[in-house]
């Protein structure tokens, strides 16, 4: 069978080892005679699974003790609502850096909830080809927090250095580069991320939040209530049992290969290979300012939609899957998340090279 590499933007490729372990353990978890698909979230077995996943997250990201690690459902989109519901309770006003589609969506969701959103900088005018620069000092006593999207999945930019918020809490949507590169958790007051790109199958959203920001808030749906989730070990109701289990396996895999420092080194190597090819190509182009380029999502195009489609079809024929770009950007997009092996990127670059040569 042809080797297949899946470059999807999420849900995305998982480590082979994790898929194999799931397959082995699926009929009977730890010799219990019951599948992970069947066990109660109130069982001792699941307690161990969720606690281990939390601890592995803490170890891998070096999360300080004054932060909670919580698991939600509802995805990144759920957190676009949960964050303002929990945090925008004093000024009812937040600051936003508009770096792309997902940053703007977060702002829209906060607006729906009656929160005032000040977009302090945007690069929309140049199709988000770089990150917006924050040139002002944030005023005191004005904002409940500032929202940024650390990696812009669609546009292919990422923050490698963080904006200065002058004491205003910083919220980072890390959905597409959590644990793909090292960030200092204490530079943020809250980080959230769906796991379905770098850490597991869709269905779990990680929230890492400074304990001092967690308040009891009236009129908040229980499924979004940080204070309730912190009190109930993320289980005030039934959690996504299988997805937390599978995320736990991926975290163990990440630990076994050397953690974030090692995966970041691998991700740099994979991304460099593709960017180098694109920068030398006479046909394909990556439109992003080099200093702001993402390690995990690489959009590229020829400038001719028919030729882009032909390239996608050719790559698909060679087992290089899901490379069609997001509809808002067009062209192609390669997502190079943690579980994408270097060989996959080599195969992609080789085939792009052949495609270009044969034109
Ligand atoms: N934020 C970012 C950066 C994303 O890439 C995505 C999904 N692609 C979302 C938020 C929305 O996540 P979800 O689909 O889990 O709601």
Automatic annotation (TrEMBL):
Keyword Endoplasmic reticulum: no
Top-tier EC class: transferase
Localization per Swiss-Prot or TrEMBL: Cytoplasm
Modified-residue entries (N6-(pyridoxal phosphate)lysine), positions: 197
InterPro entries: Aminotrans_V_dom, Pser_aminoTfrase, PyrdxlP-dep_Trfase, PyrdxlP-dep_Trfase_major, PyrdxlP-dep_Trfase_small
Domain called Aminotransferase class V: residue spans: 4-348
Keyword Transferase attached: yes
Oligomeric form and interacting partners: Homodimer.
Name of the featured protein: Phosphoserine aminotransferase
Annotated organism of origin: Secundilactobacillus odoratitofui DSM 19909 = JCM 15043
């Amino acid at each position: 069978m042809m080797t297949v590499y899946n470059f999807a933007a999420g849900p995305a490729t998982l480590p082979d080892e994790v898929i194999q372990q799931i397959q082995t353990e699926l009929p009977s978890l730890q010799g219990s005679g019951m599948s992970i698909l069947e066990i109660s979230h109130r069982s001792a077995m699941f307690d161990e699974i969720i606690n281990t996943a939390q601890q592995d997250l803490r170890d891998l990201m070096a999360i300080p003790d004054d932060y909670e690690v919580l698991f939600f459902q509802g995805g990144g989109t759920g957190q676009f609502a949960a964050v303002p519901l929990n945090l925008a309770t004093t000024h009812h006003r937040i600051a936003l850096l508009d770096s792309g589609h997902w940053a703007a969506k977060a702002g829209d969701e906060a607006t729906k909830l009656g929160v005032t959103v000040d977009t302090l900088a945007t690069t929309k005018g140049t199709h988000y080809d770089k990150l917006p620069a924050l040139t002002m000092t944030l005023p005191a006593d004005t904002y409940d927090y500032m929202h940024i999207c650390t990696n812009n999945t669609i546009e292919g930019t990422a923050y490698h250095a963080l904006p200065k918020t002058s004491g205003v809490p910083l919220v980072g949507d890390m959905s597409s580069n959590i644990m793909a590169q090292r960030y200092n958790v204490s530079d943020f007051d809250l980080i959230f991320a769906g796991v379905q790109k770098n850490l597991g199958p869709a269905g779990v959203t990680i929230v890492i939040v400074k304990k001092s920001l967690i308040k009891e808030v009236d009129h908040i749906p229980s499924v979004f209530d940080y204070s309730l989730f912190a009190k109930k070990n993320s289980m005030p109701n039934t959690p996504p049992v299988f997805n937390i289990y599978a995320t736990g396996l991926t975290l163990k895999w990440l630990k076994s290969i050397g953690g974030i420092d090692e995966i970041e080194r691998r991700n740099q190597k994979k991304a460099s290979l593709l960017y180098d090819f694109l920068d030398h190509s006479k046909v394909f182009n990556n439109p992003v300012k080099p200093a702001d380029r993402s390690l995990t999502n690489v959009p590229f195009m020829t400038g001719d939609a028919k030729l882009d489609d032909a390239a996608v079809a050719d790559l698909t024929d060679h087992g290089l899957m899901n490379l069609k770009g997001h509809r808002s950007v067009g062209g192609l997009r390669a997502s190079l998340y943690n579980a994408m092996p270097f060989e996959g990127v080599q195969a992609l670059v080789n085939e792009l090279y052949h495609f270009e040569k044969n034109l």
